[in-house]
Amino acid sequence: MIVLVVALVLGVMIFAGLIPIGGGPGGQVVTGNLVMWGFARSSTVSPILTKYNEQNQNITVSYVEKNPAAFDREYIEALANGAGPDLLLLPQDLIWRYKGRLTPIPYASFPAATFRDSFVSMADLYLDPRGILGLPIILDPLVMYYNRNLLDSAGVAKPPEFWDEFLTLAPILTKQTTPGSIDTAGVALGTYSNVTNAKEIISAMILQSGNPVTLLSGANLIPNLSDAGRITEAVLRFYTEFSNPSKEAYSWNRSFSSSRNAFISENLAIYFGFAGELFSLRETNPNLNFDVAKLPQSRTAKTEATFGKLSALAISKNTKNPPAALAAVNALSAPAYGVQFAQALSLPPPRRDLLAVIPPSPHYLKTFYRSALISKAWLDPSPEATDLIFKNMIDNIVSGRFTLSQSISEAQKEMSAIR
């Protein structure tokens, strides 16, 4: 216990700037070999850590890329055996599940106000009553990709800025060989299983309208799909209209394998994907003439929003070296390494000071940077469970099994039962 207390005090002093990284009081040196687990590709993360290790020889960090499907089981087993990583590259949808398995950074060493001044607003999800659960280093916002050729052929001069524009735009962009049979789709909305990023698209629409999806009540996470303002109902009514053959906006159905594949095959005019998908889209079809814009917004909303995937460096509960772990997290989330992560991934950084200077080229970074600032997300009790709940909610509406309010009420009940 005494060793742990001394270690945490040293960590606090490091964050407060009283001890430089690698140095302790009276010439004491903070050293250690740390292991980091994460989902990001090793080919991206490891070169940055190599530079860090060269510049901070007292502390070395090695990276282990993990399969998301096996991560939960492997980490729990490691904790049970008193082993495992020192650091986690923790995505925001696992914050709620993992918060009890982390060592929070105390606010005495990193005040909440400093955190908010340093990182984008959605990073507040990592703020816990006990301290900061992680310092963000990777941000991937949801954006809108559009096929320039298909828009030009339809006489559409620029991509839509607001969701309600799709009600008139979708019929113009959609080509039907026979009534009900879609050859070229205008926009992929309305279904769930074959709409890539469906959960995130729906979440973005709900967040834009002012519903946070989940609410904190003391130590409990409460779903808010059945909101008093019936925001979710309005969003799902709009979303499902595009798969209804009796509606003017009909532009998507289950005949397509996925919206991503349809866009790559030039059978879809507008695709909602993450910024991190840009290069894979280009590589899969080098002839695809496409561009990128911000995610469409709600015309009546007071603030703009898109969905973002954020990953932060978190300290594992089982680390044997808290001072070194704190020093590494602090250094790797600082501007010098934040730039390196952003450049390696061609993504916007989550730091406000770095977002303040938009690179003049390539041109898509302007859209990515602006999307980063308006990125939002919600505390997810279980990504796998809520994905199925969202799927059932949409399928129940589209099939006519339940009304809008019944489907939402059922989803609310299922989310409340997640433990």
TrEMBL record:
Source organism per UniProt: Candidatus Nomurabacteria bacterium RIFCSPHIGHO2_01_FULL_42_16
Identification of the protein by name: ABC transporter substrate-binding protein
Pfam families: SBP_bac_1
Domain of life: Bacteria
